[in-house]
Amino acid sequence: MPRTPVHVTVWEDGGAGKPTALFVHNVITWGDDAAYGFAAQRPLAAHARLLLMDRRGYGRSPEVERGDYAVDAEDIVALLGDGAHLVGHGYGGVGALLAASRRPDLVRSLTLIQPGALRVAADHPVVAEALERARQGVADLPQDLPPGEFLRASTEGLGLAMPEPTPERLRAARTSMRERPCWDADIPLRPIADAPWPVLLVSGDWAGAPELYRRYAGEPLIACAETIAETVGARHLRVPGFYPHTQQPERVNEALRQLWREADGGG
Length: 267
Prior knowledge:
Strand order of the largest sheet: 1-3-2-4-5-6-7
Order of helices and strands: EEEHEHEHHHHEHEHH
Structural class: alpha/beta
Number of helices: 9
CATH architecture: 3-Layer(aba) Sandwich
Number of strands: 7
Oligomer: single chain
Number of domains: 1
Shape: globular
């Protein structure tokens, strides 16, 4: 595996010759986190060598002054090696998109789980409203807000149960507060549309989500995923709930297995 500044958890269940799949997580989490990360994707190690990247400032990766999806993209490209399936969620989906657009030759397939690249769908009225709200929210965010309060606002403030504020979770919250906003990323989709490998978008249907969470996050994320899928000619999988790979792991894992088989010529 290439040497990079970030920590990578490796899951592989015997047997040589399996493809590699690189997973890139969202905010307030890390690669193998059971609450918001990819712990539920552990069974996929029977089909591929799984690399779970901890983005800078998260998990077991080194501290960073300010997280940046463009820097994440550089780390992703390094970890793709000679070629890998790429899976990104939320903020990690933005880094994955950017990495794939820069080096499509290193990607075998691309899966985006509710990517936060809202700017690509800025013409959609729901997304336009969300972008304006997000920009104002960043401007109003107190510079000295404790990470515990940020964690509370990001969960209980939207009607969700707040996770246990462990040191690892608080560190993830602190990094999330300082990251370069991913929703304003200017990402060229033409290289993705022109690539020979398949692309999958995954969204929840947001049924049962707290009203504020559905309105402020769910509706814009669904519109963004629909726009990306239509633009690049991707399949768009919708599953019940609002956190697809943790709430519906069997369906998401099966979709990933099918995508990887298709990309690798297995039908």
